[in-house]
Design goal:
Blueprint lengths: L1 H10 L20 H16 L10 H10 L7 H9 L1 H12 L9 H8 L1
Length: about 110
């Protein structure tokens, strides 16, 4: 568990094309869980209200994710996102009214759609 946590913490800002940080690794070099968390982290950031921005609508976020497949995101993760979009959207919508501070929880998303 510690090793997985370390990999996610270290590599969830890496981009599939190698333009991310901190190690600028690419593709399959990025641990798969870090690739999933990267996508969920950005999904949550785009859909959520922040002090500096309003939330984006689901359709705009979906388009953004698809546009950045192969560059920011593993295309297979984006294919999974599209295939399970209604489930992910339902999970997101159900958490909007909860007391949780984050809109999406990577672990919950991975376990529920698994």
């Amino acid at each position: 568990m510690f090793e997985l946590s370390k990999e996610v913490a270290l590599y969830h800002h890496e981009h599939f094309d190698g333009t991310g940080y901190p190690a600028q690794i690419q593709g399959e070099q990025i641990p798969v869980l870090a690739r999933v968390v990267h996508m969920i982290d950005v999904l949550d950031a785009l859909l959520s209200h922040r002090s500096y921005k309003e939330p984006k609508p689901w359709s705009a976020v979906r388009s953004w994710m698809i546009h950045h497949a192969h560059t920011h995101y593993d295309p297979s993760i984006i294919e999974f996102f599209i295939a399970h979009e209604s489930d992910l959207n339902a999970m997101y919508e159900s958490t909007k009214t909860s007391s949780r501070s984050s809109s999406l929880d990577s672990y919950t998303c991975v376990k529920k759609v698994d």
